[in-house]
Amino acid sequence: MTVTAERKANIELVWGCSEIARIIGRSARATFHMLEKGELPAKKVGGRWVAEHSKLVAFFMEDAA
Q: Distance (Å, rounded) from C-alpha 5 to C-alpha 25?
């Protein structure tokens, strides 16, 4: 397996505002506001928000450093 194929296989997607909120420790309402303003590394796909778990963690670790 190539590095690119391995990386794609290890991507863990987080679907939905509520699930993203659970991971980042915020309320669904606050998370939705952050998503709509483009403050989180996520995209809207078919009307649902989706984010890569590792990017959410990295985003918040960057602020803490």
A: 31
